[in-house]
């Protein structure tokens, strides 16, 4: 306990020197994220990504996915090739899964990474707060932390759901979800800027390990590209391109 208190004290002193305003809560942090970033953020994004699947340190497989994002929380993914017929759509707080062009399943799903990594910067803070709390994050809890070697704010409960935000840029860094002894986490491990717009171009996925089981690396990245709402219609999945 003493060690934990000393660690917390050191972090607080460090943050106090570097940051004049400590967010009073996760709600206040979300408001600060919006205020800092909304003027330079985007409401659409298209890209392709290399997908690397690992077991321990061994590369098992590679694939290429094609994706398009439209705020708030709309995302379409086409796996392997444009015409494979395989992929998913996130829309209307639902996940639609397709195989060979046919809709195979539909289920409720709010996408944490879309809300915290994208929408939070381009929709009103109150909307983001409502959606984040609905996903199960305790926004009453916030503390200084570090994440991938950067000073960060950690929001939520490490025994259930929490996320980290870069204390300087106020961009999303990482989320973690724990159920009993099982933990899943995802981190935006690299940001790049395209015409001054920040995009997390490397995403790492972890499950009960310090080594990722999947890594995504983006290319052909186009913020604010034309994206029509029609591509998120499940009835049109097989035919749409962007």
Automatic annotation (TrEMBL):
Signal peptide: 1-20
Keyword Signal included in the entry's annotation: yes
Keywords from the named record: Signal
Domain of life: Bacteria
Record's protein name: Outer membrane lipoprotein-sorting protein
Species annotation: Acetobacteroides hydrogenigenes
């Amino acid at each position: 306990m003493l060690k934990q208190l000393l660690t917390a004290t050191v972090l607080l002193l460090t943050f106090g020197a570097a940051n004049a305003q400590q967010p009073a809560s996760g709600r206040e942090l979300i408001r600060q994220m919006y205020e800092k970033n909304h003027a330079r953020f985007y409401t659409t994004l298209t890209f392709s990504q290399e997908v690397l699947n690992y077991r321990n340190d061994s590369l098992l497989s590679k694939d290429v996915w094609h994706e398009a994002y439209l705020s708030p929380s709309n995302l379409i993914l086409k796996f392997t090739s444009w015409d494979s017929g395989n992929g998913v759509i996130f829309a209307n707080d639902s996940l639609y899964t397709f195989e060979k062009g046919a809709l195979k399943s539909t289920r409720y799903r709010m996408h944490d990474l879309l809300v915290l990594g994208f929408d939070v910067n381009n929709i009103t803070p109150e909307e983001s707060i409502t959606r984040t709390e609905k996903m199960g994050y305790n926004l009453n809890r916030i503390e200084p932390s570090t994440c991938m070697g950067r000073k960060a704010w950690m929001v939520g409960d490490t025994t259930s759901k929490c996320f980290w935000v870069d204390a300087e840029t106020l961009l999303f860094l990482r989320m973690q979800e724990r159920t009993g002894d099982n933990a899943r986490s995802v981190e935006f491990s690299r940001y790049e800027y395209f015409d001054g717009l920040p995009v997390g171009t490397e995403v790492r996925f972890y499950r009960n390990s310090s080594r990722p089981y999947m890594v995504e690396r983006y290319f052909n990245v186009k913020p604010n590209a034309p994206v029509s709402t029609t591509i998120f219609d499940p009835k049109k999945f097989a035919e749409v391109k962007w």
